[in-house]
């Protein structure tokens, strides 16, 4: 059974003549430890799909299940608890708290969930070490580069040991070198640390780090490609396929 499964997932905004279908009966399964990239033209429903998978929004129709648990049946309080404990989020804009240092930002989800400060601090420091930032633990976001801030965001997403990590354009605000470093780190999150990772990206080179690419167009999945593991060849394959589907 897939770790996360979306069935007939549909999201309609508005009603009547003003209704807009952002997602149209999407079916998608992601296994534990799998890295899936979602691509497609602007407005195709990529971020909507990610928000529904993470319980940040509720579908008009269909269901999302994590380990068999249907998110659409949960109360708002239960859904918030599941997000804190089972799902890690990474966004294009790092969303770090400016007055907290890197270690405090990394530990924040645990503190919000009621973990004692000492234990939360220890876990935050552990994950900063894993993402290669232990020497910057006492630095505030303004003292870190964009790539370093995104590494803190990755540590924060992983600190509660989630089964699923959702990343919405995580390299969209970074230079080429930092983008590759974050993409490689996300591959490590899935391959070595066993989390399922679902990433939205517009960049074929970054998508090529994934195990599988899902292409969206007009709110539906129009193609899927499983990659061979050669980054240069995979990037060309992804770009060619994305270009063909955008025509």
How would you characterize this protein structure?
The chain is of the alpha/beta class. It has a single domain, classed as P-loop containing nucleotide triphosphate hydrolases (Rossmann fold, 3-Layer(aba) Sandwich). It is 38% helix and 25% strand. It contains eight helices and ten strands. The protein has helices at residues 46-53, 76-86, 102-112, 117-130, 146-158, 176-191, 204-207, 231-246, and strands at 4-13, 20-30, 35-39, 61-66, 69-70, 87-91, 164-168, 196-200, 212-217, 220-226. The strands form two sheets. A six-stranded mixed beta sheet has the order 6-7-8-3-9-10, with helices on both faces. A hairpin with a 2-residue loop joins strand 9 (212-217) and strand 10. Helix 3 (102-112) runs parallel beside helix 5 and helix 5 packs parallel to helix 6 (176-191). The longest helix has 16 residues, at 176-191.
Please tally the β strands and state the result: 10
Number of helices: 8
How many domains, as an integer? 1
Taken from the alpha-carbon principal axes, the silhouette is globular
Radius of gyration, in angstroms, nearest whole number: 18 Å
Strand order of the largest sheet: 6-7-8-3-9-10
CATH topology-level name? Rossmann fold
So, the CATH homologous superfamily? P-loop containing nucleotide triphosphate hydrolases
